[in-house]
Amino acid sequence: MKEQRVKYHNNGLLLGLMKLLILCLVIIIPAFILFVTCRLDTVIVEGSSHYTNEELQDKVITKKTDRNTILLYLRYKYGKVDSIPFVEDIDIELVNKNTVKIHVYEKVITGCIEFMGGYMYFDKDGIVVESSNEKLDEVPFITGLSFNRIILYEKLEVQKKSLFHVILNITQLIKKFGLKINTIQFNSNLDVTLYSGDIKILLGKRDTYDEQIAELKNVLPKAKGKKIILDMTDFKERQDEIIAKPLK
């Protein structure tokens, strides 16, 4: 009986070693080869306008294991990753064993306001989508207004509800026509003034600014490089002339 127990024990040990060997052959060794051969050499970035390719790579590739294409792909596919300012989502595509393509989906931002020493950025619906200490030159900066409250991921509450639609009307039109407007300024009477570099544009007070801002698409390129004031307070559609005077 003792010899039989020893025999069963040896058979069980041999069976266990065989299973371990098969596991090594089927999983561990291929995984090791994959880890060694899938070294990340090339990164292609698409869709990033806010960050340079190098800046985006530094924000995406943050761990030692990210230098492996497979592990980087799996982490962004199934793992938890840190959010990146002004970026809605990141998608990693495996091009080959040494190359990945990073698809960047940026947050759609139409304007920003200053709040407690920082900047709050909102989208076309007036939802605050980002807060940052950085002021983006390409996003219109709104001044002259006070807000009831500013909470991240919630809609802006302006001092006067009708103003909310005015702000969205202006920022959406600026984006639609691709205008380089640095600042949207409201005065105490809620008259609107736009600033594009050294060009000051008086729009006055209206419910909507469609006609004026649509015309700016034609006017601003001609005024580029000049220090002038464009008075469009009384502008009407198909108007031939716009009052312009030197900016002091």
UniProtKB/TrEMBL annotation:
One BP term from GO: cell division
Keywords of this entry: Cell cycle, Cell division, Cell membrane, Membrane, Transmembrane, Transmembrane helix
Transmembrane segments: 12-36
Keyword set includes Cell division: yes
Signal peptide: none
CC per GO annotation: plasma membrane
Superkingdom: Bacteria
Amino-acid biosynthesis found in the keyword field: no
Protein name stated in the entry: Cell division protein FtsQ
Organism of this sequence: Anaerocolumna sedimenticola
